[in-house]
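Sequence in, structure out.
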Amino acid sequence: MTPHPRPALGLGCAAALVAGLATSLAFPPVGAWPIAFVGVAPLLLLLRDRTVARGALLGFCFGVGLFGATLYWIFLFGALAWGALVGMSAASIAVFGALATLIVRRDRPIWGAVALAAAWTALDWLRGMWPLGGFTWASLGTSQVDDRAILRLASVTGVWGVTFVVVFANAAVAVWIARRGRGLARAALLVAALAVVLAPALIPLPTASGAPVTIAVVQVDVRVPDGTSPVQEDVTVARRNIEEYRTLAGQTPPPDLAVWGEGALDPGALADAATVGTVRQAIARVHVPTTVGAVVNDPDGTQRTTVLAFDASGTLVDRYDKVHLVPFGEYVPWRRYLSWVSAIKQIPVDRTPGSSVHTISQPGLPSYGTPICFENAFPGIERTMAREGAQFFVVPVNNASYGFTAAAEQHLEMSRMRAVETGRWVVDAAVSGISAFIGTDGQVVNNTQLFVPGILRGQVVPSTAWTLYVRYGDWFPVVCVVIVAMSFLFAPSRRTSHPEPASLPFPLRGLAVLPTYDERGTIEQAVRGVLAVDGIDVLVVDDSSPDGTGELVAEIAAQEPRVRLLERPAKSGLASAYLEGFRTAIVGGYDVAIEMDSDLSHDPTELPVLLAAAEHHDLVVGSRYIAGGSVTDWSRSRVALSRGGNAYARFMLGLPIHDATSGYRVYRRDLLDALLRDPFASDGYGFQIELVSRAHRLGYDVGEAPITFRERVYGESKISRSIVAEALWTVTKWGLDLRFHARQQA
C-alpha cells in the first residue's frame, strides 16, 4: 500500500492550528458538540511518523487553536494574560503530541487508539492539577454535556471517561482515514468506537428521593457607571442585591433557601456598617435561610472568598471559605518576581484559601455544598462535599468581568457535568448570570440571561445516593496513566517490510558454519551429519583448539571436498567466527548459510526441517519453545531461565519468535548481505538476539521451526554467567533505544 505523504512541518503546524480552531466549535458560544468526535483526528493523522520534537510542536499548535479560541474572553484582561493561559494549556497538548509519537502502535490499531485516548485523558487530568493548582477549561469531556448518551458515563468515571471516549472515537476516525492496520482490525476499531460512544446510554443514574427544597436565586446587574470607586461599587452591588432580595417578602409559599451570588457582598460593602445592618434586616424580614457570596476581610488581616450562611433571623450560622483560589485572579504567585507586570496591580491583595472542603448546615435544611465559582471546575471538590454529606449543590458564581462572552456558558457546562458526576442537583447562583437549576441528568431545568435582574426560583431534590464516581473518585485517569506506561513497554512496530521470500533455487547450495574450540570429540560426527544433507557444504572455523580439533578437521577436509577449514591463530569469540563464515558464504555464492554448534547439541538430522522452512522465511530459527520443540538434559530451573530470557527479549525488542537465543539457524544470502553492512556490538547470546532483531527491523521475514536441543556430551559450555548478564543488559539498552530513538524518523 502506498503510504500517505506527510505535509511539510510548516504546513502541518498550520493544519494543526486549524484543527484546534475547528475543535473549539464544540464549546460555547457555538456549542456544536459533535465536532469534538472528529476535531482531534487531523492532529492524530499529522502526528504519524513524526519525531518527538515535531510531535510536540504540532500538538502545541493544535492547543493554541483549541484554547486560544475557546478562552478568547481572557483577552479582556490583556494579550499577556491570554497568551500565558493559552500557552500553559497548549503545553499539555504539546506533551500529548510528543507522547503520541512514542506510544502509537501502527500494527495494533485498537491498542493504539486506547493508548492515545488514555494519554490525552491522563494529561487532561494532570492539567487540572498542575501548575498552580491546575486549569480545566476546554476539557473535551465537558463539551459533551448535551450528548445524553455519553454523558451518563460521567457518573462512573467522572468527566475523564467522557474525554477518553471522545479521543478514542477520533483515533478510530484517524486510523480509518489512514488505512493503518488490517481491514478486519480497522473495522473492529470502528465497531468498538461506536460501542463506547453509545453504550453509556444504558448506565442507570441514581434517583434523588429527598423532600424537595425550593430555592430562590437573586441576580442583579452589577454594571456601574465609569469612574465609580471600588468601595462605592461594592456598596452599589450589595444594595441592588438587597432590593431584589426584598421582593421575596410575603411570597406564598416562601422559598426554603435564598442565595446571593459570589461577590454580592465585597469588602467595601462589609466594611460599611449600615449596609451590613440592612442585609441582616432584609433577611429577618424575608425570614428565609439565606446564603450570600462575599469577600471577607477577617480580623487576622487575611482576606477570603467566602459563603456566609444566615438563618431566617439573619444570624450567621455557618461559613465556607474557598479553598481553590484563582491564580492571578485572587492571588498573584511569585508576586516579588513579577512586579514588572503592571497588570498584577489589579490584584492588590493575595487572598487566603480556606482550610478544608466541607458542607453548609442551616436550620431546617439538608446539608449542601457551596463550591465557589472557580472551584466548580474541579471535580474532586464536589465529590468531597458529596462524601461529606452534601445532598445538593449551590454554586455562587461571578463571571461579571467577562461581560457577554461565552465564559458564563462554558462555566455552566461544568456545573452540568458535576451534577451527573455526583448525582446531585446543582444550582448556579450567578451574581449577574447565568443562574440555573440543573438536574441530576445534567440538563438545565430553567435559567436566566446575563445581566438581567430578577429572582430565579425552582426546586431541587436532595439525594444521599453515591454514584460510582463519588465512591471511587479519579480511578479512571489513574488507569489511563497505567495504560500509557504500558504503552511505553511495548516495542514499536518495524517501519519497513520486504516482499515475501521467493522460492529457493534447486538444487540448493548451502554452507554450514561450525565454530570450534576443543570440539574434537564431536566435530567429526557433526560434519558427517551435515554432509548427509544434499547440497550443503561445511566450513569449520577453528580458533587453534588445544585438543587438536583443527588437525582432525584438516584430515577430513583432505578427503572430503565439501569440507573446508578456516584456522584462526587465537580464540576470537563465537560472533566473529560466525561472521567470517557468513562472509565466506556470501563470497562463495551460496544460497543459504547455516549456523549451528559443533557439539551435537544441534542435531544435524533436523537440518532438512529448517531448510524446508527457509522456503517461506528469510531467516529460520530452530526453536526449542514452540510446538514440537524441546530441551533434553536441562534442569527445570535452567529451562525456566532460558524461557524467561527469551520472553524478555521478545517483549523488549518486539521479536516475532520465541527462541531468539537459539544458535541453530538458516539465513538466506540476501539477508546476510544486509545484516553484515553494519558492525555488530555483541557476542554470545547477545549476538544471536542482535541477528534476529536486526533482521526483523530491516523488514525481513523471520520464522521458526521446531528442534530438540540436547546438552553437549563432550567438553564444557562456552557461555558464562557474565555473558548472560551482559546479553540481558544489552537487550534492555536496545529496547529503550527502540522506544525513544530508533522509532523516530525526521
